[in-house]
Write a structure and sequence with these properties.
Elements (H helix, E strand, L loop, with lengths): L6 E4 L2 E4 L54
Antiparallel strand pairs: 1-2
Length: 70
């Protein structure tokens, strides 16, 4: 049976928010969730690629490779 119980880690101890539903020695696995700011990706900045990307003048022209399919 798998059971998840929320808690927190502080000063080398794990404190559970409720009692575990087992009464004998049981194997456990602990997953540490990082704080909200540690794995948060950076916000995108609109226009940050301006001047770094160029499109050729014939960008919207049909491709020669596709002539047989037209």
């Amino acid at each position: 049976m798998l059971t998840t119980i929320k808690g927190y880690y502080e000063e080398g101890r794990i404190v559970l928010s409720e009692d575990a539903p087992v009464y004998s020695k049981t194997d456990v696995m602990v997953t540490f969730l990082t704080g909200p700011d540690e794995n948060k990706p950076n916000k995108r900045v609109p226009g940050s690629l301006k001047g770094k990307v160029e499109l050729p003048d014939d960008f919207n022209e049909p491709l020669d490779d596709l002539k047989d399919y037209m």
